[in-house]
Amino acid sequence: MAIFNRRGATDAGPASKPGGPAGGAGAADNDTDSVIKEKKPFAQRKPANTAFKQQRLKAWQPILTPRSVLPTFFVLGLIFAPIGAVLYYFSSTVSELTIDYTECISLPLNEDQAIPSSKYSYQLHDISSSNFQQPRWTRTGENACQVFFWIPTDLDPPLFLYYKLTNYYQNHRRYVKSLDTQQLLGEVRTADDLQGGQCKPVGKDDATGKAIYPCGLIANSVFNDTFGDPILLTSSTSQNVTYAMSERGIVWPGEKDKYKRTTMDPSQLIPPPYWRGATGERYGKPSGEYFANGSNLFDPSQDEHFMVWMRTAGLPTFRKLYKRNDADVLRAGYYRLDITDNYPVTMFKGTKSIVISTVSWVGGRNPFLGIAYIVVAGLLILLGLVFTANHLVRPRRLGDMSLLSWNAEEGGR
């Protein structure tokens, strides 16, 4: 039958006979030549016959045996354990004071009250029941608050003042993308450019048609609470001494390169909606007319608080640096901190706090990394002991051919 004929075999039809109209043997030769010609380009793409291109390089193929694997568990555990202990120890040497002042603005006016224990956290050295005084707060104005706290021991520099927010999702995709880098670099960006870009819907003012500067959701929601310098009220040596802290040097190196003063006409710009009417010192006058001339024009390259805020946080609970002191010791005593409360957080069920902290060579007070190293070290040593006991009780001969899959199947039949 023709279905079993090999390729090139003579067919019974007239077209395959010698001398037939199909050309017979001559046609077969032509077909062979065309196949060879078609294959030549592909043959030229063959990799060179070298050890690298033909994957014949020498390689190390380790054989994992109990003698090599079990010591690895113990060695890694013995390495991780001291690393974790060192990290945990130096993290615990960091002194830190956290006070949640969210509810201070809702207190009765000029009524001094003790701060509930759930609203503050002391992680300071040499603190005891004998030298501890509960922090207090009082509302002194419509949006002004004073917080009083006790420092039981001297805190060496550098010292940092942070503000901390909770339940605030700066990592939302739309929020993170809502800025215009060209505008922040001082380039000309029209209202239509901003409204059609990432800044929408905070790119163009609907009432005036002007470009919002700086545009975007991040800039519109910038944190605008202000904190004064801590004032030492009482101590064993002096009274009413201000501990001066600087608002410079609070951004990461290179951050200032992202911001420049705008080259646009100030009359064509308008501040973000949440900036208008702000009473804070950092972002203009209550009338909101601080873009009327060049002297009052906002310059992002000179506002490090703005730069800190524009670097969005990856978690809903975060802290951002507000002030620092790199030279002076914070003496033990009773301090007062003046706060201007402008930033609402109750709308998203969040809280805001002040954090006063020192640092060590491993950074701030965060024991997680040290604990993680210690836990991993403990797991490695525990697994090493379990596997060692299993190997001693039920040893397995290396290279046991009976454990191969096909031998196991045959043995089970």
TrEMBL record:
One annotated Gene Ontology cellular component of this protein: Golgi apparatus
Main location: membrane
Pfam families according to UniProt: CDC50
Transmembrane helix in keyword set: yes
Keyword Lipoprotein attached: no
The entry's keywords: Membrane, Transmembrane, Transmembrane helix
Localization of this protein: Membrane
Any Gene Ontology biological process: phospholipid translocation
Residues that span the membrane, as ranges: 68-90, 368-393
Superkingdom of origin organism: Eukaryota
Residue ranges, annotated region (Disordered): 1-33
PANTHER family named among the record's database cross-references: CDC50, ISOFORM A (PTHR10926:SF0), CELL CYCLE CONTROL PROTEIN 50 (PTHR10926)
Family: Belongs to the CDC50/LEM3 family.
Protein name: Lem3/Cdc50
Upper classification of the organism: Eukaryota, Fungi, Dikarya, Basidiomycota, Ustilaginomycotina
